[in-house]
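Hi V.,

Quick status before I head out on leave. The structure for the redesign project is tokenized and pasted below; the design run finished overnight.
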């Protein structure tokens, strides 16, 4: 069987989603033919990728990428011609809110494009934490959008049982496929870095945005009574939010050192985690949370909120799940970690890696598009 999936996702060449998309395309079965439709530039960039804008680039025998300029009419004409030149079995879209999701679904509703099935992956956008941000606009949109999605019999992909429940809470009629492993995750833990004496070393790796809740992490660090160091890695997605973070950093007490250290390349993430005692991550919600797995695989215990699918794994992996993840409660958890001896910190790192190894041995999932084909019939 040959299936053609149209995947809509901005920022194909940069940021966190790129690893997921590359992994999906690189692990396709031979009988799938996939065209990825993506923006012709990085998120928020005014300039398109050189020599790629408006082009369909063939990656291999199974996949191609179309770089779309949203404001370029000729790109849309070229894209529609390409889509209508062959039967389309599946449209697979990421995000409820993105134009890369709304426009193709509208095209199907208006019969401009004919497909056998649509699958929508909300990517954590239906978590309580995500819906609380600009909640009024989102609830209004969902009230209008939900009847159309139901009429088109849109299928849903969740990355975990947690996200499955969140989808069902908003769309009780939803047909949901659960498939979480869409990034290359290590088969084995990384070599360990020996723990050290001195202040507790904490790290944050993630997007600097309200959802990742860095402000609460900073408040927790400021409220800790033991000496510690806290390094922050990640893109500054929200300037106003980053300004709030900067104010908290500038007001840190003398026994706390906080540094912003820029962005990390994908191959730098695990070596970076391995040099720290704990990953501080009071996220408001993760549909999956690959960064948590990368931390554990690096032998770095996680201190996290209870808003991820991995609470049990985190608690068993030398870290702590803080409920509720208030700044005060997190501060107390950090003080307990800081009181550990060098030997106890080393043991916690070994536990994190060992627990990850056991978890990894149990995880085997299909390529998400192959799974979607089977799920949609």
């Amino acid at each position: 069987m040959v299936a053609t999936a149209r995947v809509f996702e901005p920022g194909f060449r940069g940021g966190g989603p790129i690893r997921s998309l590359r992994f999906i395309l690189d692990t396709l079965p031979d009988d799938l033919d996939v065209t990825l439709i993506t923006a012709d530039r990085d998120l928020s960039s005014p300039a398109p990728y050189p020599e790629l804008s408006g082009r369909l680039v063939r990656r291999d025998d199974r996949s191609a990428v179309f770089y779309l300029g949203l404001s370029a009419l000729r790109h849309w004409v070229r894209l529609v011609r390409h889509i209508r030149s062959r039967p389309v079995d599946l449209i697979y879209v990421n995000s409820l809110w993105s134009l890369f999701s709304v426009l193709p679904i509208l095209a199907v509703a208006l019969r401009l494009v004919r497909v056998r099935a649509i699958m929508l992956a909300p990517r954590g956008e239906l978590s309580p934490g995500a819906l609380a941000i600009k909640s009024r606009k989102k609830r209004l949109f969902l009230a209008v959008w939900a009847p159309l999605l139901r009429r088109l019999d849109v299928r849903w992909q969740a990355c975990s049982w947690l996200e499955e429940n969140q989808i069902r809470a908003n769309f009780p009629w939803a047909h949901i496929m659960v498939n979480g492993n869409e990034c290359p995750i290590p088969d084995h833990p990384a070599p360990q870095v020996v723990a050290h004496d001195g202040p507790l070393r904490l790290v944050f790796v993630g997007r600097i945005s309200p959802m990742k809740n860095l402000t609460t992490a900073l408040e927790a660090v400021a409220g800790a009574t033991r000496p510690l160091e806290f390094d922050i890695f990640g893109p500054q997605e929200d300037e106003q939010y980053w300004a709030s973070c900067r104010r908290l950093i500038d007001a840190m007490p003398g026994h706390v050192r906080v540094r912003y250290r820029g962005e990390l390349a994908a191959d730098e993430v695990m070596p970076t985690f391995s040099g720290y005692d704990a990953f501080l991550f009071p996220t408001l919600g993760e549909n999956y949370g690959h960064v948590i797995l990368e931390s554990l695989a690096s032998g770095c215990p996680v201190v996290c909120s209870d808003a991820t699918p991995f609470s049990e794994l985190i608690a068993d992996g030398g870290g702590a799940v803080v409920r509720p993840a208030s700044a005060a409660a997190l501060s107390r958890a950090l003080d307990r970690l800081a009181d550990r001896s060098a030997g106890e910190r080393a043991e916690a790192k070994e536990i994190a890696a060992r627990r990850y190894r056991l978890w990894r041995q149990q995880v085997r999932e299909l390529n998400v598009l192959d799974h979607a084909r089977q799920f949609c019939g």
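Above is the designed sequence. The chain has two domains: 3-184+365-376, 200-361.

G. will cover questions while I'm gone.

Best,
W.
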